[in-house]
Amino acid sequence: MTNEDLPEADAFTVEVCWHYFVNELTQAQIAKAMGVTRLRVNQAIQRARSLGIVKVEIDSPLLPRFDLQDRLQKRFGLMRALVAPANPENYDYHGACGAALASYMAERLRSGEWRRIGVSWGMTLQCAINRMMRQVLPDLEVVSMIGGTSRGESLNAFGIASGLADRLGARYSLLAAPVFLASQIDRAEFLAQDIFTEHFEKLRQLDVAILTASNISERSYLIRTGLPAVLGTEDLIAAGVIGDVVSRFLDAEGNHVPTLLDDCTIGIELDVLRQVPERVLAAAGPHKVPIVRAALQAGLANVLITDDLTAKMVLDAD
Fold first, then answer.
1. pTM higher than 0.85 for the full model?
2. Fewer CB within 10 Å, N- or C-terminus of the chain?
3. What domain range includes position 118?
């Protein structure tokens, strides 16, 4: 079998071999890192040997991506990085990344380790949902991590949480509030209601948080649909903001930038987010490179899913 004959399905086999033969991890360590059984790791190694993928070195056209993944993991201290191949001639920064996220989520769901999934919003998540197989997982709960907006129903926090739950046959819990409260409403008093107390307790019990990131432009769902009139993009840029994660604004070093919206933002706090065991950031596109780097440097994610064009730019920005 030649390199050209290898289907994309063999990506798992090649990744296992990379960790086993190049990184010299044990089969148990690989199984834990990839969220699969040790038996499946062993089968992948045996399959690679039988197909001739493993000789003196791992012989696969997929290796350039695995090199990027390895470099990203080491550079940012990640548990895992997945780099999807993008089409540079017809570039879609949601498509490849969304497909990779769908694959990752399917893999992790098979492991049975997730019982409560926190989700944000955006097109990348919607692309992932569209690619996922329908399942019946009644013990699984999908929890929205941020409030919503009145526009872009399929992309906002309400649509993403309910849409993913529908695809997985799971339960869902919505943070039934706007992402930004009106200025005349007291946030503490508003969140003291039982429905929100219970929801925020669920946010402290997430097994995984699925995150996206946006820059400060009209490409951003938050900027386009949810930013109140009291704060404009010019104000954010002047304050040093380069983007947001879960509607929290960050500077280029990953520091939270205080704004007029802090006292009215409804969603998971960054300190609470950092306590979630698995934090998956799915983001791609040249315009997102600064916010991806900022989010990783801030420790907001320990798993990165992106495409190869973005991965190179993130690494080259050092």
1. no
2. C
3. 65-316
